[in-house]
Every structure is written in structure tokens, then in C-alpha cells.
Design a protein that fits this description.
Chain lengths: 641, 494
Amino acid sequence: MSVLLVTLAFLPAAGGGILLVIGRRADRAAPWVSLGIATIILGAAITAFTTRPTLTAGFISSTGATLHVDGLTAVLLPTVTAVTLLVLMFAVAEKTKPAARFHGLMLLFAAAVVVTVSSTSLPSLLAGWEIMGATSYALIGFHWQQPRTIPSGFVAFTVTRTADLGLYAAAGAAIASGVSWNLTDLSHAPAPWVHVIAAGVLVAGLGKAAQLPFSFWLSRAMDGPSPVSALLHSAAMVAMGAYLLLRLEPVLHASGWAAPTAAWVGAVTTIVLGLIALAQKDLKQLLAASTAAQLGFVVLAAGVGSTAGGTAQLIGHAATKALLFLAAGAWLAAAGTKQLSALRGVARRWPLLGLLFLAGALSLAGLPPFALWWTKDDVLAGALATSPALYAAGLLGAVLSAAYSAKMIAVVWAKPDPRERARFENRLWDAEEKGTRTVPAGALAPILVLSAGTVVLGAAAIPGLSGPFRALLGATGEPESTIPELLVSAALAVVTAALSYWRGIPHIPGALTWFGLERAAVAVIGTPTLRLADTLSRFDQLLDAGVDKTAGALTRTAGALQTIDDSLDAGVGRTVGALTRTAGALQTVDQRLDRAIHHAASGVLGLGTLARRLQTGKISDYYAAAAVVTVAAVLLLIVVR
Amino acid sequence: MLSVVIFLPVVIGIVLATSRRLPAAIIRWVWVGTAGADLLLTLVLTVEPETGRTLRGEQRWEWMPGIGSSYHVGVDGISVPLILLTSIIFLVCALWSVRAIDRPRPQAALFLFLQSTCLGLFAAQDLILFFVFFDLSIVGMYFIIAGWGHGNHRQSALKFFLYTFLGSLALLLGFIGLYLGATPHTFDMVALSQAGAFTGTPLVAGLVLAAIVVGLAIKTPTFPFHSWLPPAHTDAPTIGSVVLASVLLKMGTYGFVRIAIPMLPDAWRSYAWVIVVLGLVSVLYGALVALAQTDVKRMIAFTSINHMGYVILAVGAAGIIGSDTAAAQQLAVTGAVTQMVSHGLITGALFLLAGVFYDRTGSYDLRQYGGLARPAPRFAGFFAVASFASLGLPGFSGFIAEFQIFTGSIGTTWWALFALPGILITAVLLLRAFQRIFTGPTENLSPGFADLRRHETIPLAILMGLSVIVGVFPGPLLALIQPAARIVVESLTP
């Protein structure tokens, strides 16, 4: 039993759970509890980097909850726990309220991420995976009083859960094919089950990573608070989708078709979501689209078997995007808006934040010497080794990254003249919430730390220097980027960024509304399902009415039997009456006989009077009919035998 | 000991029913005390060390030797979880009712009577005894709905009674078939579960199985025999709904595992496909129809059909035997039993929550609420947690059950893949309902809605707490079920 892993998984889970149960009364203590736990798990994650602990516990199967820190996990655990701590610091500085519910959910989420990223067995992986989804629902809908947030959480949760069904199918296919739930065994499943497993994993990963065609949920997720976007929609939850594909890349390859599919979906996502990002008018929407686009490179890496490049891109992007989301959140809090039209020149008003934002944006643009330049080229080197067409597609995605990053820079560093500035500050600020007009120092500190990450983390993908990183991941044989490739991508990025900065962005029809992905999903799946539900519901009423009618018919049949019974009864009574008249001396005896026969007759056929006294009389009729059927069936059974 | 567990409630119930002068407060606490004591006794029975026999607490007395029927009770890994569930649910109902004012004395007596019939059914090892408890439970529930229900309750109660009673007659017919099919003729369940106990021809075995399946399918209920369930739930009193959903429905699914599979294994294998299809249809039909409901209680009732559909799917899939499917069958059966317990805990909580709506405003219509989280935050929290539990979120018992059911069933037949959308539709419908009722502007019936009180919070916390414990640490429960599930799977192996 590893204390480290228990700490990593259960401490935030327990802390978060307790904060949620106590509720409002814990609001004052919550920030400190939360920061304390986040610090401890960051320490534990760093320690785990060297000690590489394993924890096996029974969960559904005897090894169903196996957590292990291997190279990939050793890299990702410190990344996600560090971003968690920084984001929580930001949230404390920005006084996100109500604190107990917020920090409770964030800690629960962090625990789920730890479990997801360190599981080597499907049951615990799926557990962490789905709890991430559920906490994201609650976090996106955190300000539930606003009409749009909970529906947005609903979209995010249901879309990702649709994709999650793939993991359930994969777990079932593993059983069907006789391999264990151990992640390393899955690629050994025989056909046809290996295809089911690969398909399930692929769908689940693409859904969580907001790749096409699932991307639209990430747009809706932007209705959540900024710290939520900074953690869930940059470093942790969406990143976990890409992580799953990196982790299970052997399964994708074993199937033959899933790996190239992943590579192409990733490449197409970088292009399509790049276009969508270009067209956005809301800073967080732009960042969301770019997240899906950047994770497209990681998915591409998983598809071409470039684990080292993909992992480097994952952590480089985590730092970059967390920075940008936090900066956007700081401006949202200060200016009360995240509309690009209202944020013109905002970097000049808060220049330190503006500079840090610039670092993040340049990294996102893929400009040297920032992290994403190195990491993206590492991925592209793998693509080139597989197929020149994939490389070209990836390069196009990189060009688009430069373009949308330059667009952001152009806006926030714009220099509007004082009159225009006063006009939109008066008119457009505070459109979404009441701005504070200040960026607290406590909110700047975590952004500062992240900006260091956007420079340093590139080292993981510098050709010649990335040896230890590759050795850590067991990926020493994978292709590395070359100087000419790096120069080409840098030149392309510089030119595109410059063009976009000075010339602006052309209009892209449909891109602003994410090419109608959400509307299409509603029209193709949502509405028909609801219509089917309504139809079935009406059918159910018909079924119910049919049952009632059958029961009515049975009752009438029983009623007819009753009439026969009554006349029989009356006949018996008359006969007895005649007997009574002829033998007056035996009258007393006869009367008793009369009663007895009467009782017997009605008892045999009706079974009615007693039951009738109990209720409306229907029971007796029904009982009689049922009894007759039963007796007949018993006779049939005996005869057949 | 086991007989004490079974009959303690009804004895106290009779005492309560006959002592007319007891004040209501004492009656309520005697009820709580009895339910609590019975739960403790059940726990003692659970932790009792294995004696080497397969049944715990086995007792057998002559009853009707002429027809091979005896008073025979005993529990194993399939019945112990259900007995525990029964004791917990009845304790929760007693706690929920400590403020009840509507005829507390007969109510307590009736629930104690019903508790004995439920415990007796899960402990019975004789078909006649099983049948008697089965019918008595129907009678008890009839009076609960008719006596304490609301709306169109008399008619709903009658419909419930007639429909499930008809089911019990089909069941009786099947039991007689089992009796005649065994040499020597017997109603003893242990003897009938021995390999080769049924000596009839495949045709007769099929007919007997059909009778039993129809009887159990009505009780469970599965599509298309479910139409008694929604009205019964809608018009039943809150704790009546809880017992109906949490305990009475389990009698049907329990019968599949306890009677249908081990006593007619060959016929079960032959017709496993029928059962699988019945399960699949129930899963999807229950979920979709629930999606279209606007009445909270009706909606939860249809999710019960969906959740019980998983159990039917699993027991059906367990009958589809290929090479190397033992592990998958074992998962499916274990998952089915886990689901019975899990559904009892979670749906019990959901029906308690639904009862709060009626208690406060008299309306179950979810369109008449909105923004309820503002006046009733604790209620909203519990509803959200129970909804996530019901939609099978990991961390709750439902995931443990459904994950095993899915993987085990897919392990024997890929048709089970079609059941997967069930957990998605359930998620959609529960979250849509939550959204409609609790978020957005506080309007319609919501303003002034009183939040949960302590006697409501405690039972809900018990149910949800247990669901979380099973969801996070399923080991002990599964260890209890697995050996018994193995015996069921072995009985299916030709």
C-alpha cells in the first residue's frame, strides 16, 4: 500500500467531499483547506516522480484499482497538480464564491484526475474518468442562478458521456475476448474484439479531448468560471482525453485502422478548430477552440506513435493555456467582459498582465523560443515520418495557431485613442458581470509562474536535449524534429502572425458558430430521441389502456359465469324449497341444508362474497377467472406429462 | 435466529395493532426501535462465521409433509444482501415517519407486517413458503396504497393487486410444474436446485419456465408487463413507494436468480435469448418513456423499469454459454445482485425526495417548479447526488452494479452493447429534471418551499452514504455475493 498514492487520490477526494457536505459553514476555511491539500498533493506528485509507487486495491475485480506511476504518469502528475495549485491560488485571490462548494468540487475533480492519470486498470480509470465529467458539470454550472450555465454543463456532460460509453464497451470487449482489464493487456485482445476496444477507446478519448465531431461541448463549457476553464479545459480534463489516446496508443495500433483515424481526426481538428478560433469574438471562446486545436496535435501524435512529442505538447499546452485562461479571467473580473471588441488595449491598462499574456500567446502561436514551437514540431516530425500529407495538414494547423494567437495579441495590445477607449469602457465593460477594475497581486503570481512554464517546458522537445525526457517515457526511438523543420515552422509562424497582426483576419462563414456542430447534434440525435420518447410514452398509455380493457373483458366473462352460477343457485334453491314444502317435519334440517348448499355453490364457482366485502367485487370475479385458468393449466400440464 | 429476524416485526406489529391506547409518539419510536433491532439482528447473521453449510441460519420444520413442503428458511450470498437491504429500507421508512400524523398505529403495524413478509420471502427455501410470503406482501402493499395513498389511489391499488396477483398465479402454476417435475415430488428449493432435479421433457420445462418468467416479469416489472407500476407509484404514499421500488420489485429479480436459473438451467439456456431481449427492451423503453415524463414520481418509476432491465439483461446473458464465458457469467450474475441492492438504496432515496414535493406543495409536476435550489439548497444537493447515483456515476453503488452487468453481459453476447445508451438516456432525463426543478429563476411553486428537515435528512443521508460506501469500497459486498453467484453459474454449466 503506497502512502503517496493514497495521499494523492484520497486526500483531495476526502477534503473535497467534506467541504461539500459541510457547505456554507465551511466557506471561510475552504480556501485554506484547498490550498493546503493542493500543496500536499503537488509535493506528493513530485516525490512520486522519483519513487514511482504502485498501489493495488480491489475494485470490482481483485486488481480493479491499480494505480502506478510510470514515466508518462510521472510527467503528468506534477503538471496537473501544479496547475491545480496555481489555479486555486488564482481563485482565492479573485474570491470565487461560495468558496466551500467551489473548492470542494475542484478538489474532487483533482482527485478524479489523479486517479485517471495513474490508473493502469480499466475500472479505476473509468471511475476517475466519469467523476471528472460529473464534477465538470457541477463546475460549469457553478453559478446555477444564471440561466445558461447549468444547460451548458448539461451539454458538456452528456456529450462527453456519450463518448464515455466507448470505455464501457471496451471493458466489456476485454471480458469477451478473455484479456484482463489491465491497460497493457488490451492490445493483446484477439479480433474482432480488439477492434471494439480500439473503437471504444478512440471515441472516449476524442470526446473528452473535444476533438471533432464532439468539439462543441467545449464552447458551452466556457460558461463556467474562469479558474474552471483554466484547470478543466486546458491542463486536466480535455487533456485527459488526449492522454488516454497516448496511453493506449498500442491498442490503436493493434487494430490497424484506429491509429491512422486518430491521426487524421487530430490533424483535421487542428485545422477546423483553428478556423473556428480565428472567427471568435469572445476571448474565452477563442481560447476554447484553440484548446481543441492544440490537443489535435496530441491526438495526431498518438495516432503516429509519437508519444514523446505528444506528451511534451500536452504539458507545454497545459502551462500555456492555463496562463491564457487565467489572464482572460483576470480581465473578465476587472473589466466585466471577455468580448474582444471591449478588450481592445486592455494589456496597456494592466501592462504586467499584458506582458504575461503576450508570453502565453506567443507560445500558442508556435513562435521561437517558446514551448509550443518545440513541442508541436516534435509531433510534426512524427507525422512526417508517417505521411507527408499528415505533416502538411499539421503544418496548416500550426499556421492557423499563429494567426489566431496574433489576433488576440493585436486586440489586447491595440492602441485605441482615448475617446474611443472611454466610449467602449463606458458602454461595453461590465456587460457580463460587475468589473472590479483591479487585478489583485495574488492573481498575478500564479500567472507569472505559468509564464515561466511556457518557456522552460519546451526543453522536453528540443532535439538533442530531449534525451532524458524520451528515456523517461521509453520513447527513445521516435523521430525528432530537425533544424530545417524547426526553421520552416518558425518562418511560417512569424509570417502568418505578422500578416494576421497587421492585415487582420478574413471573414470565415459559419466559423463563429462553430460550424453549427451543436445545432447539428441536436437535430440529428437530440430532437429525434425526444420525439421517440414522446411516441413511446403515448404507446405506453395505449398499452396501459389495453391492459385495462383486457381486464374489463375478463371481468365481464367472470360476470357471465356469475350469472350462470346465480341461476344454478336459484335452481338449487327452488328444488330445495319444493323439498321443504313436501317434508314439513324436516323443515329445520332442510333449512340448514339449504344454507349449506347455497354456500357451497357460491363458494365453488364465485369465491365472491368474502372478497366482495373486501373491495368492489372485481377481485372476486378476477380471482375466479384466474383460478379457473390456473386449474385448467395444471390439468393440461398433468395431461401433457 | 433467522426466524426471529423474520417474525420479530410482525409480532411487534400485532402488539401495536391490538394496543389501542398507546400514544402515537410511542408507537412511532417502537416502530423505529423494532426496525433498528431487526437490522442489528440481520447484521449479526451477516457477520456470523461460515459454518461449512451453504446456507446461513438454516431452519427446517415439518409443515405439510404430504405435499413435500416444509417451513424451510436459510440465507446465502444472494439473499443476505437483500435481507440487509430490506431491513435498512424499512428502518429508513420508520425514521421518515417519525412526524407522520395520519393513523400512525395501523401504519406502523402494516409496515411491520410487510417487513416480515419481505424478509420471509428472501429467506424462504420452500416454494410454498415463498409463494405465501409473495402473496402476503401483495396484500400488505395493497392496503398501504389504498389506505394511505393519494390521487386515484384506490384504483391504482386495485390495479396493482390484480396485476401482481395474476402474476403470482402464473408463478404458482410454475411452482406446481416444478413440484410435479421432481422425483420425489417436493417443493423444497434446495432439493429442486440440485443438478438434474427437474426430470420433465424440454417442452414441459419450457412451459414451466414460461409460467415462472411471466410471473416474475410482472413483479419485476419488465416490458410489456409494467403498466401497473407507474400508477401504483404515483398514487402510493411516499414510504409505500420506497418499499415498493426498493424491496418488492426485487422479489421478481430475486426469483430469476433463486428459482428460474438453478431449477430449470437447461430451459434457461435454451430461452436465454428471450430474456436478453426482454432485458434490452426494458432498459431502452424504460429510459425513453421516463425521458418523456413530466411527473417526477412517474419518471422515477420508469427509471426503475430501466434499472431492473439491466438485471434481466444480466441474468439472460448469464445463460448464454460459450467457451470461456464463466468469468463473464459470474460478473453478470454478481452485477445483477449488486444492482438489486444498489437500486434499492438509490431509488429509495429518489422516492423519498419525490415525496418531499408532495408534502410541501401537493404537486409532482416538474414544470411547476424552477430555481428551487434557492429556497431549498439541501434538498437540491440531495436530489443532485441521488440523480448522479441513479445515472450510474462511479463513486456510487450503481456504477459497481452496472459496470459488472455491462462487461459481463457483453462478455457473453455482443447484443448487450445495445443496452449502453440506457445509462446515457438516464443521465439526460435526470439532469434535465434537475435543471428544470432546481435552477434558473425561482418561480411558480418554488418560493417559500421549506428545505429538508432533520427527520428527512437522516434517512436520505443513510441511503446515500451506503451507496457511496458500496461505490467506493465494493469489496465486502462483492465478497458476499460472489460465492453464491458462482454456484448459480455452475448450475448453468451443462
